[in-house]
Amino acid sequence: MKIRVQTEAFDLGAEIDALRAGRLDVGAVASFVGYARDINDGSDVRAMTLEHYPGMTEKALGTLADEAAARWTLIDATVVHRVGRLLPGDPIVLVAVASRHRGDAFAACAFIMDALKTRAPFWKKEETPAGERWVEARASDDAAAARWADKVGRPD
Description:
four-stranded mixed beta sheet, 4 helices, four-stranded antiparallel beta sheet
């Protein structure tokens, strides 16, 4: 499992190539890329700054990947999350999962992303025309993560 927290952008194609490198047993790769938006909660967003707790953040992301590997049959996974100041359209997060079969790859990718939104120690501050504001947790993220509680495999 590869876990990185970084300021620089990532290359989706290169990350997937690295995930599959030398592996002929990979039958599926599912990935998710999240991007910074130019609007949130009805306000224009000029930029967003992501802060984290170094060391703790990587450990939390690794735990999520390990939990996914315990639930599904995975070959490998990559989680890359950016920190620092990001502009609308910039990639923020990548979750890519390799497995023999698509069902495991899809489910593990969704699980990691849903859990990341609620359990990884990141803090977001947006720059809007009205000034800066911290982004609060969303009930929809809690609901998405909750669907995996006490379940093995795919959610209902």
